[in-house]
Design brief:
Structural class: mainly alpha
Radius of gyration: 22 Å
Distance between the termini: 58 Å
Order of helices and strands: HHHHHHHHHHEEHH
Helix content: 55-70%
Shape: globular
Number of strands: 2
Oligomer: single chain
Largest sheet: 2 strands, antiparallel
Length: about 280
Amino acid sequence: MASTSAVPQRSQSRGIGRAQTMMFDWQNEDSSAMDSELVPSSLAVIAPILRVANEIEEDNPRVAYLCRFHAFEKAHRMDPTSGGRGVRQFKTYLLHRLEKEEEETRPQLARNDPREILLYYQKYYEDNIREGPHTKKPEEMAKILQIATVLYDVLKTVVPHAKVDEQTHRYAEDVKRKREQYEHYNILPLYATGARSTIMEFPEIKAAIRALRNVQNLPMSRVREASNVPHASSGGKDISVFDILDWLSSHFGFQVYHALNSFLSLYFLLASHML
């Protein structure tokens, strides 16, 4: 990695892994699958980091490498002696991959890793999140915001706090605010990412969702964005409406949490009449 006091050196990462992990041959395994799908259960918290690395690999291999490096460090802190089931083999595999990627990847947007991930995070926000709520489906936004959250966590381990500019802080706060709108509520994971929940496949649930999202013939309103949002403009903006609760909220100012709870209640009410 780049030579900076905020980022552990490559020689240090090799020392951590080789001193306390047993060499194991994973060369014939599918690396993308190994990264996030075969993480030992005791290290499950690093799986989202590795999934993000896989997601952004094609867009920016160097930032993907930084995500995997962060995952490796986190795994080592969680189990420094590699005593958990499958941990020693997995850490050895990940270490081998990091050594290879350290040599093969180079920053694309800057001359060092801290600046690279800082610029990439800003670019990711501007390309996907700034106008995302107006152009993307809730499921897409949930995934995008999840990726942005992981990227910011990695960024904080690579970039010294004093070097994180105000714009990046504002973007991170906006991501945090937006994520609250896409949290899972009660039983139905409306905007969950990853594998689709079984309950969402029930015909009566699907029918209820279709009924509540049938808003094509409703008049759309324009609302003024809050001034504390980084990309807020001076004028009004059309707000994307995905269901009847979005529509009611845009017209009458319902709070997000109340609207979502009401949404779930209506789902189950409609679904119960369709049984």
